[in-house]
Amino acid sequence: MIEVKGLSKSFKLTKEAKKQLKSEQQDPRQEGDFFHALTRVDFACKPGQVLGLLGPNGAGKTTTLRILASSIRPDRGEILVNNVNIVKNPEQAKKKIGFLSTNTGLYQRLTAKENIEYFAKLHGMSSKQISERAPVLYEELGITEFLHRRAETLSTGMKQKVSIARAVVHQPDVLVLDEPTTGLDIMATETVLSFIENQKAKGTPIIFSTHHLEEVTMLADEIVVINHGKSCFRGTEESLKQQMGVSSFRKAFMHLVNKPKKEEAI
Ligand SMILES: Nc1ncnc2c1ncn2[C@@H]1O[C@H](COP(=O)(O)OP(=O)(O)OP(=O)(O)O)[C@@H](O)[C@H]1O
């Protein structure tokens, strides 16, 4: 179980960023030298639940997920994983959260196997634990046939599989996936989606962000919509449609974020 309560995060803007923001349409989240990327984000995800994080560009999804992965610290708020506040305990966070982002790097000169083993060791796993765990992942993700190839020679889809293995090798309590299918073809997307389904079946809470509403329909038990740095909806797709008084998920989402002209943006 993961509970996120009252997260907020502001970034200090560089001179260049301030100049750029001035030239763009004014974002009310900018205040002097600061940009209030998150002002209040709350949600929870139970064991075996898949939570889809949705929001327009710049809403605050990646910032939220980076905080969950303890890549950055929030200014305020709590994140409880099975009642342990991981904001106060970032070392625990790394153990408890498996994080996959579009920037999840692999060491290009290492093979797929070496990469996975390297990250397993960083998580403090023993050789025995790695030799038991890693082959299960190779099988589950279809990595076996390119295990000994260097990361630099792998296709985008193959790299994504290795990145997933890297993110879950230490069997984290919670999975956090930032746009896990972005840039992948249909086959690689299918691997990621069925991996999410498998993890769900094992009872892992999973939080993923996406711009694809159909992925949310397919996978998510509940949705959290973030808009302008706030979680503005939590519930099922059906309840969002009901609340917005429309029968289409896309329209309901667009009504909620109030940007009907930019339907194609999500
Ligand atoms: N280090 C930073 N300094 C200043 N502003 C930042 C920083 N990181 C993020 N932001 C701003 O915070 C806002 C939220 O960014 P974030 O990346 O979380 O959005 P997102 O919902 O993931 O968007 P997208 O769907 O486009 O990936 C954006 O306006 C972004 O420009």
Automatic annotation (TrEMBL):
Record-annotated ABC transporter domain positions: 2-253
GO molecular function, one term: ATP binding
Domain of life, source organism: Bacteria
UniProt cross-references to Gene3D superfamilies, sorted A to Z: P-loop containing nucleotide triphosphate hydrolases
Membrane as UniProt keyword: no
Keywords attached to this entry: ATP-binding, Nodulation, Nucleotide-binding, Transport
InterPro entries reported in the protein's UniProt record: AAA+_ATPase, ABC_transporter-like_ATP-bd, ABC_transporter_ATP-binding, P-loop_NTPase
Residues spanning the signal sequence: none
Recorded family membership: Belongs to the ABC transporter superfamily.
PANTHER family: ABC TRANSPORTER ATP-BINDING PROTEIN, ABC TRANSPORTER ATP-BINDING PROTEIN NATA
Protein known as: Sodium transport system ATP-binding protein
Species: Thalassotalea agarivorans (Thalassomonas agarivorans)
